[in-house]
Design brief:
The chain contains no helices and 29 strands. By secondary structure, it is mainly beta. The relative contact order is 0.14.
Amino acid sequence: MSVIETAGARTLSGHTGAVNSVAFSPDGARLSTASEDKSARVWNAATGELLHTLTGHADAVFAAPFSPDGATVATVSADLTPRLWDAATGKCTHELTGHTIAGFGVAFSPDGRILATTSYDETIRLWDAATGEPASVLEGHGDIVYSAAFSPDSALLATASGDGTARLWDPATGTCLRVLTGHTGIVSTVTFSPNSALVATASEDTTARLWDSASGAQVRTLEGHTDSVFGVAFSPDSALVATASSDTTARLWDAAAGKCVRTLEGHAGAVSSLTFSPDGRQLATASTDETARLWPL
């Protein structure tokens, strides 16, 4: 039986709109948040001090991950222009043009060479992460592409879509290698386990699912949330899976057994995104209640 925890979390306040996503820097020292208030913010993860507010987007910001070296933050927004920012100064260095409708997801390849963005235009665009120059466009989904994630070796790209599927691609050739089917609702998030063995997906069908990354076969279904599951993340050792839900909770699951081991309560709105700290000792969550929280594990 899961243990419900409401105490011990630290709250990061300051956004004036829903917080759509949260991400740690590779060294765990900083945290980024992206919000409906048209900004992203960079925080000191240890103290909660606001370091930078990234302003310039003309509409909601959906994601703001750090590059693998921690030097850059990428943002994607409903204003059609993904941006790259100097993480040390908070200054915008590049604006990326190409999507024809609002962007939704963004991810750096672990080798730092490629940036992937996803969009309401049903495409995934790949960019040179250093220069912001466009590289290629991946097409195949039949609805909004909400999320993208690279495998730890940068050899595969996974995407999640409103068409109810996730896809695995070869980012070098743009070839779709596998289509992961089984969800009965929008697939909102996709990610790889750090050991590369599994792919996790989150869906509005109230479940998260784990898949074999080599074969595309479904391994197990994580059931227990009472509303849409928006976010999913693996712990650094691949032993735990965390899920974020519109039911206002986050849950921790044993990845091998598929059992919920902890439930985190405290947000006053949907939990839209989550991520583990690089050392695995904290979980960060983002919520429509306009806050992010840091939970000790």
